[in-house]
């Protein structure tokens, strides 16, 4: 099954005077950017049942090259995850808010079909490891663990990509020919994440969805 239905958070920009609205938006499933000034944008994210930032929140942080976040301990946002956007990436966050301004509500349901998309299957660094080799053997395709499908450099095995940037397993289509046996690294790419949306925009021209 390649279609994934994602309830993705909607990014909203808030003035600090409306911090309570930002908190309500995040508690309802959205992501918030509270703009205190050009050099100070406070990001707010929901947390999962274990108290960690949600997976889509973490992927949003990774997209702006940030790993650090913390739990808010006091005040109305208590319990939420927060981080501060770096000045370099503030325009990216504000662009997400602009992109999402057309959507009402805190979240948006998206049905994404990876077998009809493959936008993230371009010029990627996909490490292939023993569990992947085992999967290749299990489907009777042990040659997938050897060149030209993979290359080995410095002891690390990665998928090879064609000169046009496409994964060798795509052939001439957008359909992954080894989807059920694709490497774990391909599976780890989260559908509906900011990285997914960016890949779809860069490769397919979809601004959202
Ligand atoms: S860009 Fe997103 S929807 Fe497209 S194949 Fe990758 S994970 Fe799936
Ligand atoms: S193996 Fe399949 S899912 Fe992974 S990058 Fe190649 S085409 Fe995409």
Ordered list of secondary-structure elements with their pairings:
Elements: E1 3-9, E2 11-14, H1 19-27, E3 31-37, E4 40-45, H2 55-63, E5 70-71, E6 81-85, H3 90-100, E7 107-113, H4 130-138, E8 150-153, E9 156-159, H5 184-187, H6 194-204
Parallel strand pairs: 2-3
Antiparallel strand pairs: 1-7, 3-4, 4-6, 5-6, 8-9
The protein binds iron/sulfur cluster (2 copies).
Distance between the termini: 18 Å
Uncertain segments are none
- Which term fits the overall shape? elongated
Average residue-wise pLDDT:
95
Number of individual domains:
2
In helices, the fraction of residues equals: 25-40%
Radius of gyration: 19 Å
How are the strands of the largest sheet arranged?
Answer: 2-3-4-6-5
Strand share of the residues?
15-25%
- What is the string of SSEs from the N terminus onward? EEHEEHEEHEHEEHH
Largest beta-sheet details: 5 strands, mixed
Output the structural class. Answer: alpha+beta
| Quaternary structure of the protein | single chain
Number of helices: 6
What is the tally of beta strands? 9
Bound molecules: iron/sulfur cluster
